[in-house]
Amino acid sequence: MDRELFDHFLRDDTRRGPTPDDAFTGAAGGAACGDLSRLSLTVDGGRIASVTFDTEGCGATRAATAAVAEAIEGATVLEAARVSVDDAEGLLGGLAPAKRHAAQLATDALHRALSAAAASSLPLDPTTAHRGGPDSPASITSEGGRGRSPERVAVAVSGGVDSAVAALLERERGADVVAITVKLWADPETDGTKACCSPEAVLGARAVAHSLDIPHFTLDLEADFRRRVVERWVEGYAEGQTPNPCILCNGEVRLAAMLDLAQRLDATRLLTGHYARIVEDAEGPLLAAGADAAKDQSYMLAALPPDLLSRLGFPLTDMTKDEVRAVAARHGLSVAKKPESQDLCFLAGQGKTGFLRRHGNLVDREGAVVDRSGRTLGRHRGHHNFTVGQRRGIGVSLNEPGYVVATDAVANTVTVGTREDLETRRIHVRDAVLHRDGARVDNVRLRYHSATLPATVGAAAPGRHDALELELDEPFTAASPGQTAVLMDGETIVGHGTIAR
User: Fold this and answer.
1) Do 3-118 and 152-330 come out as alike in CATH topology?
2) How buried is residue 462: exposed, middle or buried, by Cβ count under 10 Å (0-12/13-18/19+)?
3) E strands present in 206-365
4) The whole model's pTM is what?
5) In the predicted model, what is the mean pLDDT of the chain?
6) Is 197 one of the catalytic residues?
Protein backbone atom coordinates (compact mmCIF):
# COMPACT_ATOMS: atom_id res chain seq x y z
CA MET A 1 0.00 0.00 0.00
CA ASP A 2 1.18 3.53 -0.80
CA ARG A 3 0.55 5.31 2.51
CA GLU A 4 0.64 8.76 0.95
CA LEU A 5 -1.98 7.80 -1.65
CA PHE A 6 -4.09 6.04 0.95
CA ASP A 7 -4.10 9.05 3.28
CA HIS A 8 -4.89 11.40 0.38
CA PHE A 9 -8.02 9.48 -0.57
CA LEU A 10 -8.96 8.87 3.05
CA ARG A 11 -9.16 12.64 3.57
CA ASP A 12 -10.61 13.42 0.12
CA ASP A 13 -14.04 15.03 0.49
CA THR A 14 -14.07 16.52 -3.02
CA ARG A 15 -16.85 14.30 -4.26
CA ARG A 16 -18.78 13.81 -1.03
CA GLY A 17 -22.09 15.59 -1.03
CA PRO A 18 -25.68 15.48 -2.24
CA THR A 19 -26.54 13.10 -5.06
CA PRO A 20 -27.91 14.78 -8.20
CA ASP A 21 -31.50 13.89 -9.10
CA ASP A 22 -30.46 12.39 -12.44
CA ALA A 23 -27.64 10.27 -11.01
CA PHE A 24 -27.32 6.50 -11.25
CA THR A 25 -26.44 5.02 -7.87
CA GLY A 26 -24.88 1.74 -6.81
CA ALA A 27 -24.17 0.48 -3.29
CA ALA A 28 -22.33 -2.53 -1.94
CA GLY A 29 -21.79 -3.92 1.55
CA GLY A 30 -23.97 -3.14 4.53
CA ALA A 31 -25.00 -4.83 7.75
CA ALA A 32 -23.29 -8.16 7.11
CA CYS A 33 -19.75 -6.73 7.06
CA GLY A 34 -20.30 -3.27 8.55
CA ASP A 35 -18.70 -1.50 5.58
CA LEU A 36 -20.70 0.24 2.86
CA SER A 37 -19.66 1.88 -0.38
CA ARG A 38 -22.16 4.05 -2.25
CA LEU A 39 -21.31 5.71 -5.54
CA SER A 40 -23.47 7.91 -7.79
CA LEU A 41 -22.67 9.12 -11.28
CA THR A 42 -24.28 11.22 -13.96
CA VAL A 43 -23.88 10.47 -17.66
CA ASP A 44 -23.76 13.04 -20.45
CA GLY A 45 -23.00 12.06 -24.02
CA GLY A 46 -21.66 8.66 -23.03
CA ARG A 47 -19.23 10.23 -20.58
CA ILE A 48 -19.34 10.31 -16.77
CA ALA A 49 -19.97 13.97 -16.06
CA SER A 50 -19.92 13.90 -12.26
CA VAL A 51 -19.40 11.46 -9.40
CA THR A 52 -20.40 11.61 -5.75
CA PHE A 53 -19.83 8.99 -3.09
CA ASP A 54 -20.45 8.10 0.51
CA THR A 55 -19.18 5.31 2.75
CA GLU A 56 -19.66 3.72 6.13
CA GLY A 57 -17.20 1.64 8.09
CA CYS A 58 -13.45 1.33 7.75
CA GLY A 59 -11.01 3.84 6.30
CA ALA A 60 -9.95 1.44 3.55
CA THR A 61 -13.49 1.41 2.15
CA ARG A 62 -13.60 5.20 2.17
CA ALA A 63 -10.20 5.51 0.50
CA ALA A 64 -10.97 2.90 -2.17
CA THR A 65 -14.33 4.47 -3.02
CA ALA A 66 -12.83 7.96 -3.22
CA ALA A 67 -10.05 6.66 -5.48
CA VAL A 68 -12.50 4.98 -7.86
CA ALA A 69 -14.70 8.09 -7.92
CA GLU A 70 -11.75 10.29 -8.89
CA ALA A 71 -10.55 7.83 -11.55
CA ILE A 72 -13.84 7.57 -13.43
CA GLU A 73 -14.95 11.20 -13.37
CA GLY A 74 -14.66 12.46 -16.95
CA ALA A 75 -14.12 8.95 -18.33
CA THR A 76 -16.42 7.35 -20.86
CA VAL A 77 -18.93 4.84 -19.57
CA LEU A 78 -17.06 2.11 -21.46
CA GLU A 79 -13.81 3.04 -19.79
CA ALA A 80 -15.44 2.91 -16.36
CA ALA A 81 -16.86 -0.52 -17.19
CA ARG A 82 -13.29 -1.82 -17.50
CA VAL A 83 -12.46 -1.03 -13.86
CA SER A 84 -11.72 -4.24 -11.95
CA VAL A 85 -11.01 -5.01 -8.32
CA ASP A 86 -7.30 -5.12 -9.15
CA ASP A 87 -7.56 -1.66 -10.74
CA ALA A 88 -9.28 -0.26 -7.65
CA GLU A 89 -6.61 -1.76 -5.41
CA GLY A 90 -3.88 -0.44 -7.68
CA LEU A 91 -5.18 3.11 -7.29
CA LEU A 92 -4.12 2.89 -3.64
CA GLY A 93 -0.77 1.27 -4.39
CA GLY A 94 -2.08 -2.06 -3.13
CA LEU A 95 -3.96 -3.21 -0.05
CA ALA A 96 -3.25 -5.72 2.69
CA PRO A 97 -5.15 -9.00 2.10
CA ALA A 98 -7.45 -8.22 5.02
CA LYS A 99 -8.41 -4.90 3.41
CA ARG A 100 -8.89 -6.09 -0.16
CA HIS A 101 -12.62 -6.25 0.48
CA ALA A 102 -12.58 -2.43 0.34
CA ALA A 103 -11.56 -2.54 -3.32
CA GLN A 104 -14.24 -5.16 -3.94
CA LEU A 105 -16.96 -2.99 -2.37
CA ALA A 106 -15.89 0.13 -4.28
CA THR A 107 -15.83 -1.82 -7.56
CA ASP A 108 -19.21 -3.44 -6.86
CA ALA A 109 -20.74 -0.03 -6.12
CA LEU A 110 -19.37 1.34 -9.40
CA HIS A 111 -20.68 -1.55 -11.48
CA ARG A 112 -24.10 -1.40 -9.84
CA ALA A 113 -24.27 2.27 -10.76
CA LEU A 114 -23.27 1.36 -14.30
CA SER A 115 -25.98 -1.32 -14.26
CA ALA A 116 -28.54 1.37 -13.44
CA ALA A 117 -27.22 3.42 -16.37
CA ALA A 118 -27.42 0.35 -18.62
CA ALA A 119 -31.09 -0.05 -17.71
CA SER A 120 -31.86 3.52 -18.76
CA SER A 121 -32.58 4.71 -22.29
CA LEU A 122 -29.48 6.89 -22.53
CA PRO A 123 -26.99 6.37 -25.36
CA LEU A 124 -23.83 5.16 -23.65
CA ASP A 125 -21.31 5.62 -26.43
CA PRO A 126 -21.94 8.38 -29.00
CA THR A 127 -19.47 8.68 -31.84
CA THR A 128 -17.48 11.30 -29.96
CA ALA A 129 -17.07 9.16 -26.84
CA HIS A 130 -14.50 6.54 -27.76
CA ARG A 131 -11.57 5.42 -25.65
CA GLY A 132 -9.26 8.19 -24.51
CA GLY A 133 -5.52 8.57 -24.89
CA PRO A 134 -2.79 8.00 -22.32
CA ASP A 135 -3.77 11.14 -20.42
CA SER A 136 -7.48 10.35 -20.21
CA PRO A 137 -8.99 9.90 -16.74
CA ALA A 138 -9.57 6.22 -17.42
CA SER A 139 -5.97 5.24 -18.17
CA ILE A 140 -6.00 3.21 -14.97
CA THR A 141 -6.59 0.04 -17.01
CA SER A 142 -3.91 -1.73 -18.98
CA GLU A 143 -5.29 -0.71 -22.37
CA GLY A 144 -7.03 2.54 -21.45
CA GLY A 145 -5.32 4.40 -24.26
CA ARG A 146 -5.92 1.90 -27.07
CA GLY A 147 -7.72 3.29 -30.11
CA ARG A 148 -11.13 2.19 -31.27
CA SER A 149 -11.22 -1.17 -33.11
CA PRO A 150 -12.87 -1.34 -36.55
CA GLU A 151 -15.94 -3.12 -35.18
CA ARG A 152 -17.43 -3.10 -31.73
CA VAL A 153 -19.39 -6.19 -30.74
CA ALA A 154 -21.23 -7.07 -27.55
CA VAL A 155 -20.88 -10.58 -26.15
CA ALA A 156 -23.38 -12.11 -23.74
CA VAL A 157 -21.08 -13.38 -20.97
CA SER A 158 -22.66 -15.67 -18.38
CA GLY A 159 -19.57 -16.71 -16.46
CA GLY A 160 -19.38 -20.12 -18.15
CA VAL A 161 -16.79 -21.46 -20.56
CA ASP A 162 -18.84 -21.09 -23.75
CA SER A 163 -19.46 -17.35 -23.48
CA ALA A 164 -15.91 -16.75 -22.24
CA VAL A 165 -14.45 -18.44 -25.32
CA ALA A 166 -16.86 -16.54 -27.56
CA ALA A 167 -15.55 -13.26 -26.11
CA LEU A 168 -11.96 -14.46 -26.38
CA LEU A 169 -12.33 -15.45 -30.05
CA GLU A 170 -13.84 -12.08 -30.91
CA ARG A 171 -11.05 -10.24 -29.14
CA GLU A 172 -8.48 -12.31 -31.03
CA ARG A 173 -10.30 -11.49 -34.26
CA GLY A 174 -9.53 -7.85 -33.54
CA ALA A 175 -13.01 -6.75 -32.53
CA ASP A 176 -13.64 -4.18 -29.81
CA VAL A 177 -15.50 -6.42 -27.35
CA VAL A 178 -17.96 -5.37 -24.65
CA ALA A 179 -19.38 -7.97 -22.23
CA ILE A 180 -23.02 -7.94 -21.11
CA THR A 181 -24.42 -10.16 -18.34
CA VAL A 182 -28.05 -10.37 -17.28
CA LYS A 183 -29.20 -10.88 -13.71
CA LEU A 184 -32.51 -12.71 -13.74
CA TRP A 185 -33.03 -14.15 -10.30
CA ALA A 186 -31.94 -13.59 -6.70
CA ASP A 187 -33.48 -15.84 -4.05
CA PRO A 188 -32.01 -17.00 -0.71
CA GLU A 189 -33.38 -20.48 -1.45
CA THR A 190 -31.57 -20.69 -4.80
CA ASP A 191 -27.96 -21.90 -5.03
CA GLY A 192 -26.51 -18.98 -6.95
CA THR A 193 -23.28 -20.86 -7.65
CA LYS A 194 -25.27 -23.28 -9.82
CA ALA A 195 -27.47 -20.71 -11.60
CA CYS A 196 -26.54 -18.99 -14.84
CA CYS A 197 -28.04 -15.57 -14.09
CA SER A 198 -27.69 -15.11 -10.31
CA PRO A 199 -25.80 -12.36 -8.45
CA GLU A 200 -22.96 -14.86 -7.98
CA ALA A 201 -22.94 -15.55 -11.72
CA VAL A 202 -22.74 -11.81 -12.40
CA LEU A 203 -19.59 -11.52 -10.27
CA GLY A 204 -18.08 -14.53 -12.03
CA ALA A 205 -18.90 -13.12 -15.47
CA ARG A 206 -17.42 -9.74 -14.56
CA ALA A 207 -14.24 -11.42 -13.38
CA VAL A 208 -13.99 -13.36 -16.65
CA ALA A 209 -14.54 -10.19 -18.70
CA HIS A 210 -11.96 -8.22 -16.77
CA SER A 211 -9.45 -11.07 -17.04
CA LEU A 212 -9.77 -10.56 -20.81
CA ASP A 213 -9.52 -6.77 -20.33
CA ILE A 214 -13.06 -6.31 -21.62
CA PRO A 215 -15.59 -3.73 -20.31
CA HIS A 216 -18.47 -5.35 -18.46
CA PHE A 217 -22.09 -4.30 -18.00
CA THR A 218 -24.87 -5.97 -16.02
CA LEU A 219 -28.53 -5.75 -16.98
CA ASP A 220 -30.89 -6.36 -14.07
CA LEU A 221 -33.98 -7.95 -15.65
CA GLU A 222 -35.29 -9.70 -12.55
CA ALA A 223 -38.65 -7.89 -12.40
CA ASP A 224 -39.37 -8.51 -16.08
CA PHE A 225 -38.18 -12.11 -15.82
CA ARG A 226 -40.37 -12.77 -12.79
CA ARG A 227 -43.45 -11.33 -14.50
CA ARG A 228 -43.03 -12.69 -18.02
CA VAL A 229 -41.32 -16.02 -17.36
CA VAL A 230 -41.55 -17.30 -13.78
CA GLU A 231 -45.16 -16.31 -13.17
CA ARG A 232 -46.20 -17.89 -16.46
CA TRP A 233 -44.22 -21.02 -15.60
CA VAL A 234 -46.02 -21.28 -12.25
CA GLU A 235 -49.38 -20.65 -13.93
CA GLY A 236 -48.61 -23.41 -16.41
CA TYR A 237 -48.05 -25.95 -13.64
CA ALA A 238 -51.21 -24.79 -11.90
CA GLU A 239 -53.08 -25.56 -15.13
CA GLY A 240 -51.54 -29.01 -15.46
CA GLN A 241 -48.93 -28.14 -18.09
CA THR A 242 -45.14 -28.49 -18.29
CA PRO A 243 -43.92 -25.14 -19.64
CA ASN A 244 -40.41 -24.44 -20.97
CA PRO A 245 -39.28 -21.12 -19.43
CA CYS A 246 -35.89 -21.00 -21.17
CA ILE A 247 -37.48 -20.71 -24.63
CA LEU A 248 -39.72 -17.93 -23.38
CA CYS A 249 -36.83 -16.11 -21.70
CA ASN A 250 -34.61 -16.27 -24.79
CA GLY A 251 -37.43 -15.34 -27.12
CA GLU A 252 -39.00 -12.46 -25.19
CA VAL A 253 -36.78 -11.20 -22.38
CA ARG A 254 -33.02 -11.39 -22.18
CA LEU A 255 -31.70 -11.34 -25.75
CA ALA A 256 -33.93 -8.45 -26.83
CA ALA A 257 -32.82 -6.43 -23.79
CA MET A 258 -29.15 -7.16 -24.46
CA LEU A 259 -29.57 -6.19 -28.10
CA ASP A 260 -31.03 -2.86 -27.00
CA LEU A 261 -28.06 -2.22 -24.72
CA ALA A 262 -25.63 -3.31 -27.43
CA GLN A 263 -27.14 -0.73 -29.75
CA ARG A 264 -26.75 2.03 -27.13
CA LEU A 265 -23.11 0.96 -26.74
CA ASP A 266 -22.63 1.39 -30.48
CA ALA A 267 -22.03 -2.34 -30.99
CA THR A 268 -22.91 -3.73 -34.41
CA ARG A 269 -24.00 -7.15 -33.12
CA LEU A 270 -24.70 -9.20 -30.01
CA LEU A 271 -22.81 -12.50 -29.91
CA THR A 272 -23.55 -15.43 -27.60
CA GLY A 273 -21.93 -18.74 -26.73
CA HIS A 274 -24.88 -20.78 -27.96
CA TYR A 275 -24.33 -23.76 -30.24
CA ALA A 276 -26.56 -22.76 -33.15
CA ARG A 277 -26.38 -21.32 -36.66
CA ILE A 278 -27.97 -18.49 -38.58
CA VAL A 279 -28.75 -19.23 -42.21
CA GLU A 280 -30.22 -17.10 -44.98
CA ASP A 281 -32.91 -17.91 -47.49
CA ALA A 282 -34.58 -15.66 -50.05
CA GLU A 283 -36.70 -14.04 -47.32
CA GLY A 284 -33.98 -13.39 -44.74
CA PRO A 285 -32.25 -14.99 -41.73
CA LEU A 286 -33.46 -18.09 -39.89
CA LEU A 287 -32.13 -20.15 -37.01
CA ALA A 288 -30.63 -23.59 -37.65
CA ALA A 289 -29.03 -26.43 -35.71
CA GLY A 290 -25.40 -26.11 -34.60
CA ALA A 291 -22.54 -28.31 -35.79
CA ASP A 292 -22.26 -30.26 -32.50
CA ALA A 293 -25.46 -32.32 -32.38
CA ALA A 294 -24.80 -33.23 -28.74
CA LYS A 295 -24.78 -29.55 -27.77
CA ASP A 296 -27.17 -28.05 -30.31
CA GLN A 297 -29.15 -25.29 -28.55
CA SER A 298 -31.28 -24.07 -31.44
CA TYR A 299 -34.38 -25.56 -29.74
CA MET A 300 -33.93 -23.21 -26.76
CA LEU A 301 -33.63 -20.23 -29.13
CA ALA A 302 -36.59 -21.21 -31.31
CA ALA A 303 -38.83 -18.32 -30.21
CA LEU A 304 -36.37 -15.65 -31.31
CA PRO A 305 -38.01 -13.36 -33.86
CA PRO A 306 -36.17 -13.53 -37.20
CA ASP A 307 -35.84 -9.74 -37.29
CA LEU A 308 -33.40 -10.01 -34.34
CA LEU A 309 -31.22 -12.61 -36.03
CA SER A 310 -29.58 -10.08 -38.34
CA ARG A 311 -28.02 -8.48 -35.25
CA LEU A 312 -27.06 -11.76 -33.52
CA GLY A 313 -24.09 -14.06 -33.99
CA PHE A 314 -22.80 -17.37 -32.64
CA PRO A 315 -18.98 -17.59 -32.72
CA LEU A 316 -19.06 -21.24 -31.58
CA THR A 317 -21.24 -22.35 -34.51
CA ASP A 318 -18.70 -24.78 -35.96
CA MET A 319 -17.09 -25.92 -32.69
CA THR A 320 -17.69 -28.81 -30.33
CA LYS A 321 -17.76 -28.52 -26.56
CA ASP A 322 -14.41 -30.33 -26.26
CA GLU A 323 -12.85 -27.87 -28.70
CA VAL A 324 -14.23 -24.94 -26.71
CA ARG A 325 -12.79 -26.27 -23.45
CA ALA A 326 -9.45 -26.86 -25.16
CA VAL A 327 -9.33 -23.21 -26.31
CA ALA A 328 -10.18 -22.05 -22.79
CA ALA A 329 -7.46 -24.24 -21.26
CA ARG A 330 -4.87 -23.14 -23.81
CA HIS A 331 -5.51 -19.50 -22.89
CA GLY A 332 -5.57 -20.16 -19.15
CA LEU A 333 -9.19 -19.14 -18.61
CA SER A 334 -10.33 -19.88 -15.07
CA VAL A 335 -13.62 -21.33 -16.35
CA ALA A 336 -12.01 -23.92 -18.66
CA LYS A 337 -13.22 -26.81 -16.51
CA LYS A 338 -16.29 -25.16 -14.98
CA PRO A 339 -19.25 -27.57 -15.02
CA GLU A 340 -22.40 -26.53 -16.86
CA SER A 341 -25.48 -25.43 -14.96
CA GLN A 342 -28.20 -28.08 -15.29
CA ASP A 343 -31.15 -26.64 -13.39
CA LEU A 344 -33.47 -23.83 -14.37
CA CYS A 345 -31.83 -20.66 -13.06
CA PHE A 346 -34.60 -20.02 -10.54
CA LEU A 347 -34.68 -23.65 -9.37
CA ALA A 348 -30.94 -24.23 -8.91
CA GLY A 349 -30.28 -26.12 -5.70
CA GLN A 350 -33.94 -26.45 -4.71
CA GLY A 351 -36.86 -28.66 -5.62
CA LYS A 352 -39.69 -27.78 -7.97
CA THR A 353 -42.32 -28.70 -5.38
CA GLY A 354 -41.00 -26.29 -2.77
CA PHE A 355 -40.65 -23.50 -5.32
CA LEU A 356 -44.22 -23.91 -6.53
CA ARG A 357 -45.44 -23.86 -2.95
CA ARG A 358 -43.56 -20.65 -2.09
CA HIS A 359 -44.05 -18.71 -5.32
CA GLY A 360 -47.33 -20.05 -6.67
CA ASN A 361 -49.16 -21.18 -3.55
CA LEU A 362 -49.44 -24.63 -5.13
CA VAL A 363 -49.76 -26.70 -1.98
CA ASP A 364 -50.12 -30.45 -1.87
CA ARG A 365 -53.76 -31.44 -2.36
CA GLU A 366 -54.71 -35.10 -2.33
CA GLY A 367 -56.37 -36.46 -5.44
CA ALA A 368 -57.01 -39.65 -7.32
CA VAL A 369 -54.67 -41.61 -9.57
CA VAL A 370 -56.92 -43.17 -12.21
CA ASP A 371 -56.60 -45.38 -15.26
CA ARG A 372 -57.90 -44.35 -18.68
CA SER A 373 -61.35 -45.69 -17.87
CA GLY A 374 -61.54 -43.48 -14.77
CA ARG A 375 -61.09 -46.30 -12.26
CA THR A 376 -59.23 -45.15 -9.12
CA LEU A 377 -55.89 -46.90 -8.64
CA GLY A 378 -54.44 -44.86 -5.79
CA ARG A 379 -53.92 -41.40 -4.36
CA HIS A 380 -51.45 -38.58 -5.07
CA ARG A 381 -50.48 -35.33 -3.33
CA GLY A 382 -51.18 -32.85 -6.13
CA HIS A 383 -51.43 -32.92 -9.93
CA HIS A 384 -48.66 -30.28 -10.22
CA ASN A 385 -46.14 -32.85 -8.97
CA PHE A 386 -46.56 -34.89 -12.15
CA THR A 387 -45.83 -34.42 -15.84
CA VAL A 388 -46.98 -36.30 -18.91
CA GLY A 389 -44.57 -39.14 -19.71
CA GLN A 390 -43.37 -39.51 -16.11
CA ARG A 391 -42.68 -43.11 -15.12
CA ARG A 392 -41.08 -43.02 -11.68
CA GLY A 393 -42.80 -41.89 -8.50
CA ILE A 394 -46.35 -42.51 -9.73
CA GLY A 395 -47.22 -44.48 -6.61
CA VAL A 396 -49.28 -47.20 -8.28
CA SER A 397 -48.35 -50.38 -10.13
CA LEU A 398 -49.78 -51.88 -13.29
CA ASN A 399 -49.24 -55.25 -14.91
CA GLU A 400 -46.70 -53.49 -17.15
CA PRO A 401 -44.64 -50.30 -16.82
CA GLY A 402 -46.96 -47.38 -16.11
CA TYR A 403 -46.69 -43.76 -17.24
CA VAL A 404 -48.51 -40.53 -16.57
CA VAL A 405 -50.63 -39.97 -19.67
CA ALA A 406 -52.60 -36.92 -18.49
CA THR A 407 -53.19 -34.56 -15.57
CA ASP A 408 -56.36 -32.61 -14.85
CA ALA A 409 -55.89 -29.44 -12.82
CA VAL A 410 -59.61 -28.88 -12.22
CA ALA A 411 -60.39 -32.41 -11.06
CA ASN A 412 -56.90 -32.79 -9.52
CA THR A 413 -56.52 -36.23 -11.07
CA VAL A 414 -53.51 -37.99 -12.55
CA THR A 415 -54.24 -40.52 -15.30
CA VAL A 416 -51.80 -43.39 -15.83
CA GLY A 417 -51.52 -45.88 -18.65
CA THR A 418 -49.08 -47.82 -20.78
CA ARG A 419 -46.42 -46.60 -23.14
CA GLU A 420 -48.76 -47.31 -26.04
CA ASP A 421 -51.32 -44.99 -24.44
CA LEU A 422 -48.78 -42.16 -24.73
CA GLU A 423 -48.06 -42.68 -28.40
CA THR A 424 -49.58 -40.32 -30.93
CA ARG A 425 -49.19 -39.35 -34.58
CA ARG A 426 -51.11 -36.09 -34.21
CA ILE A 427 -49.94 -33.09 -32.20
CA HIS A 428 -52.17 -30.11 -31.51
CA VAL A 429 -50.22 -26.86 -31.21
CA ARG A 430 -51.51 -23.54 -29.87
CA ASP A 431 -50.09 -20.00 -30.08
CA ALA A 432 -48.07 -20.99 -33.13
CA VAL A 433 -45.79 -18.74 -35.17
CA LEU A 434 -44.73 -19.56 -38.72
CA HIS A 435 -41.82 -17.61 -40.19
CA ARG A 436 -42.30 -19.29 -43.57
CA ASP A 437 -45.15 -21.09 -45.34
CA GLY A 438 -46.33 -24.18 -43.46
CA ALA A 439 -45.75 -26.31 -46.55
CA ARG A 440 -42.02 -26.05 -45.83
CA VAL A 441 -42.32 -27.93 -42.53
CA ASP A 442 -41.00 -31.45 -42.98
CA ASN A 443 -39.93 -32.34 -39.42
CA VAL A 444 -40.51 -31.29 -35.84
CA ARG A 445 -38.65 -31.41 -32.53
CA LEU A 446 -40.96 -31.92 -29.57
CA ARG A 447 -38.46 -32.00 -26.74
CA TYR A 448 -35.01 -30.56 -26.07
CA HIS A 449 -32.32 -32.94 -27.40
CA SER A 450 -34.91 -35.40 -28.70
CA ALA A 451 -34.58 -36.58 -32.29
CA THR A 452 -36.58 -34.74 -34.90
CA LEU A 453 -39.56 -36.53 -36.40
CA PRO A 454 -40.87 -36.34 -39.96
CA ALA A 455 -43.99 -34.18 -39.84
CA THR A 456 -46.27 -31.97 -41.91
CA VAL A 457 -48.42 -28.98 -41.09
CA GLY A 458 -50.27 -28.54 -44.34
CA ALA A 459 -51.44 -25.27 -45.83
CA ALA A 460 -50.72 -22.48 -43.37
CA ALA A 461 -49.54 -18.98 -44.20
CA PRO A 462 -46.65 -17.28 -42.42
CA GLY A 463 -47.72 -15.44 -39.28
CA ARG A 464 -49.45 -16.20 -35.99
CA HIS A 465 -51.98 -19.00 -35.62
CA ASP A 466 -54.20 -19.74 -32.62
CA ALA A 467 -53.91 -23.45 -33.44
CA LEU A 468 -52.14 -25.80 -35.84
CA GLU A 469 -52.19 -29.55 -36.20
CA LEU A 470 -49.06 -31.59 -36.90
CA GLU A 471 -49.21 -34.97 -38.58
CA LEU A 472 -46.29 -37.23 -37.66
CA ASP A 473 -44.99 -39.97 -39.93
CA GLU A 474 -44.22 -42.13 -36.91
CA PRO A 475 -45.59 -42.29 -33.35
CA PHE A 476 -44.16 -40.03 -30.63
CA THR A 477 -44.29 -40.89 -26.94
CA ALA A 478 -45.18 -38.36 -24.25
CA ALA A 479 -45.90 -35.08 -25.99
CA SER A 480 -46.17 -32.91 -22.88
CA PRO A 481 -48.70 -30.05 -22.90
CA GLY A 482 -46.89 -26.75 -22.36
CA GLN A 483 -43.65 -27.85 -24.04
CA THR A 484 -42.54 -26.27 -27.30
CA ALA A 485 -42.93 -27.84 -30.72
CA VAL A 486 -40.18 -26.52 -33.01
CA LEU A 487 -41.19 -26.66 -36.66
CA MET A 488 -38.33 -27.29 -39.08
CA ASP A 489 -37.41 -27.44 -42.73
CA GLY A 490 -34.45 -29.81 -42.65
CA GLU A 491 -32.17 -28.31 -39.97
CA THR A 492 -33.70 -24.84 -40.27
CA ILE A 493 -36.32 -23.56 -37.83
CA VAL A 494 -39.31 -22.08 -39.65
CA GLY A 495 -41.75 -21.84 -36.75
CA HIS A 496 -42.75 -22.88 -33.24
CA GLY A 497 -45.77 -23.35 -31.02
CA THR A 498 -46.89 -24.72 -27.67
CA ILE A 499 -48.08 -28.32 -27.42
CA ALA A 500 -51.75 -28.35 -26.41
CA ARG A 501 -53.69 -31.12 -24.71
Assistant:
1) no
2) middle
3) 216-220, 269-271, 276-281, 284-289, 312-313
4) 0.90
5) 89
6) no
